[in-house]
């Protein structure tokens, strides 16, 4: 049972006990006593109503704050995920660019070697033909 519910229950039990003792010990007439008890009970219900309103407002505030905290946490998680994703995409682009650069360099080297071999072979044939 929540603390506020316990307080309200204790107030109601105390009010009933007070009313019973008041009836037993009252030196006033019945109509005055009934009026005093009615006033006391009305005050007690008013206090209970105010306490319930305060509790309701506190619960609404707490729930609103909890929702805000949850939204903020969710947004933080999404932002971190986006950041991590962007980092991974950047890393992948860097690896791709490195691979393209390496492939171009290797292709250039192979092309140069092939040209050199073709020239050398052509020169060798040329020399062979001229000596024949």
UniProtKB/TrEMBL annotation:
Q: Which InterPro entries match?
A: Desiccation-related_membrane, YtxH
Chain segments carrying region Disordered: 101-132
Identify one Pfam family in the record.
YtxH
List, as start-end ranges, the regions of compositional bias called Polar residues: 120-132
UniProt superkingdom:
Bacteria
Biased composition range(s): Basic and acidic residues: 101-119
- The protein here is known as YtxH domain-containing protein
Q: Please tell me the species this chain comes from.
A: Mucilaginibacter ginkgonis
């Amino acid at each position: 049972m929540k603390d506020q519910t316990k307080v309200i229950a204790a107030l109601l039990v105390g009010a009933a006990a007070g009313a019973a003792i008041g009836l037993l010990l009252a030196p006033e007439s019945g109509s005055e006593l009934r009026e005093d008890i009615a006033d006391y009970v009305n005050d007690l219900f008013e206090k209970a109503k105010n306490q319930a309103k305060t509790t309701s407002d506190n619960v609404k505030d707490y729930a609103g704050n909890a929702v805000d905290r949850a939204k903020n946490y969710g947004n933080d998680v999404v932002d971190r995920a986006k950041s991590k994703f962007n980092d991974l995409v950047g890393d992948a682009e860097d690896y791709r660019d490195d691979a393209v650069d390496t492939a171009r360099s290797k292709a250039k080297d192979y092309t140069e070697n092939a040209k050199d071999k073709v020239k050398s072979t052509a020169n060798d044939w040329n020399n062979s033909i001229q000596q024949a």
